[in-house]
Structures are given as C-alpha cells and as structure tokens.
Hints:
By secondary structure, the chain is mostly helical. It has helices at 2-15, 21-31, 49-71, 81-90, 130-140, 147-154, 167-179, 182-197; strands spanning 99-107, 113-121. The protein contains eight helices and two strands. It has a two-stranded antiparallel sheet.
Amino acid sequence: xxxxxxxxxxxxxxxxxxxxxxxxxxxxxxxxxxxxxxxxxxxxxxxxxxxxxxxxxxxxxxxxxxxxxxxxxxxxxxxxxxxxxxxxxxxxxxxxxxxxxxxxxxxxxxxxxxxxxxxxxxxxxxxxxxxxxxxxxxxxxxxxxxxxxxxxxxxxxxxxxxxxxxxxxxxxxxxxxxxxxxxxxxxxxxxxxxxxxxxxx
Length: 201
C-alpha cells in the first residue's frame, strides 16, 4: 500500500515534466518524507501518512477543479493541472523532517501505566513558518516554482496561518487569494482532506 502510494506520488510529480523534479524527489527521500506521518495525533498519524495526505489533497483538488470548471469554464486556464499537482503534493514538504518517534508513559483503559510509542514535533531543522518553510525547501531543491504555486503553498492553511496583528501579512493573504484561484483551491482541498476524507465517519 505505502509503496503504491509512493509510486503514484512520484509518477504524478514526474508527469509535470518540471525541471529538477528528480532532485526534489531525492531530497524528499533524504528528509524522510515518505516515512513521515501527516500529524502527531490527528489525521494520518502513522508512518507514510504524509504521502497519503498529500495524495488525498491532490484528489480533492482535482475534484474541486473539475467542479469549478463546469461552473466557471473561464477559470480553467488559471488552474493548470501542472500547478495543481505541484502545489497539492508538495504543500506539506515542511513536515518531512519535524516528526520523531518517542516513548512515553500513559495510562491504558484499565488505569495501568504502560509504555507507548508516539510522535512528537521537533522544529530544530530550519525553524520558520509552515508554508514558508515548504517553499524554501523546494526552492533549495532546485524546483522552479511559478508565482501561483508559491502563493498556494505558502498560504495553504488559509486564514489560520495569518497573524492578524500584522497588517502587512493580512493584506498579503487577501491579495494572494484575490490574485490566484490556486490559493483557495489548495486550502479548500487540504481542509476537505484533513477534516473529512482522512477521519473516521
């Protein structure tokens, strides 16, 4: 299953024909992207969960894109598939090297203490903002990102990652959403995936 997910993930990236995509894949492997969870306790918090989440976001983004094009045919040229693939699959690149497995004591269902293995987050590797870190890591890998892709990856968490005490940041987010349909598309796909598709009914 995980191997199939990894293959599909890499095949989709390669389908973009983007220069240096092999370097990106090599770096993702080195960062531990393909073994990482998508979260500590919430959605897909198991080894390989990050790849599964990324593919889930891609599937949701494609579904949303198709629906939008039916309603607004003029929007198709503003949502090229290549950019949807890049932004959806690589939006959480920043999570590749932040999780580590630790052993902790926890009471079980009958009140007995036992050792459990769980993830914790370690931000010591390039400590900076969530979306910004993904963009920087991809640029370092040699990926020539389009402006819309940079904006979609940077703002993929939507208003949740806007510091409203910083007027410049709030304005930047608003302009990004107004300027690039890819921004709300990736944010919506990420939300649908993490909050609906990846959780038990």
